[in-house]
UniProtKB/TrEMBL annotation:
Organism of provenance: Bartonella choladocola
Limits of the MoaB/Mog domain: 16-160
SUPFAM superfamilies assigned: Molybdenum cofactor biosynthesis proteins
GO biological process, one term: Mo-molybdopterin cofactor biosynthetic process
Protein name (Swiss-Prot/TrEMBL): Molybdenum cofactor biosynthesis protein B
Length: 176
């Protein structure tokens, strides 16, 4: 089991949050608010935050720009992972992945099943690596964002988590 090594130094990461929605704006982006609050409470920095429409070119442009920005180490998206016609976040982002993180989707569904049951099959949550930047694509519900952060991301993005965490890999992500 994982545990937090209280003697280890906590490394604050620069995390960007992108909400994908045709209907939300900065005043009612509750999922983005949930992620921002949790990121800051965990001791990380909110590097950037924005909202884009459910349009593949808009999503891709923002992700490519942020993945190229040295001040962004992690990107978390919320929204657009369902099955309706306008849900296009995986289609926008997965072709950009240098490497997929299939285990994230598996763990997300395990955690989500404990909260909402079989409805979790309606999510296409995904994750991967783009230009040395971890990208996590979450559903747009506040519950899904809480589940993903509290049960997966919070620990994996904590440099003190032992025996392993994603932060330990970061210096080597762009090796060739």
């Amino acid at each position: 089991m994982s545990h937090i090594d209280e003697n280890a130094k906590m490394e604050s990461l620069n995390i960007a949050v992108l909400s994908v929605s045709d209907t939300r704006n900065s005043s009612d982006d509750r999922s983005g608010d949930v992620l921002e609050e949790r990121i800051k409470t965990a001791g990380h920095n909110l590097a950037k935050r924005d909202i884009v429409r459910d349009e593949i070119p808009e999503i891709r442009k923002k992700i490519v720009d942020w993945a190229a920005d040295p001040d962004v180490e992690i990107i978390i998206t919320t929204g657009g992972t369902g099955f309706t016609g306008r849900d296009v976040t995986p289609e926008a982002i997965e072709p950009l992945f240098d490497k997929r993180m299939d285990g994230f989707s598996a763990m997300f569904h395990k955690v989500s099943y404990e909260t909402i049951g079989m409805v979790t099959i309606q999510s296409r949550a995904t994750a991967g690596l783009i230009n040395g930047t971890f990208v996590f694509c979450l559903p747009g519900s506040t519950g899904a964002c809480k589940d993903a952060w509290d049960n997966i991301l919070k620990g994996e993005l904590d440099s003190r988590q032992r025996p392993h965490n994603l932060v330990m890999l970061m210096p080597r992500l762009t090796e060739r």
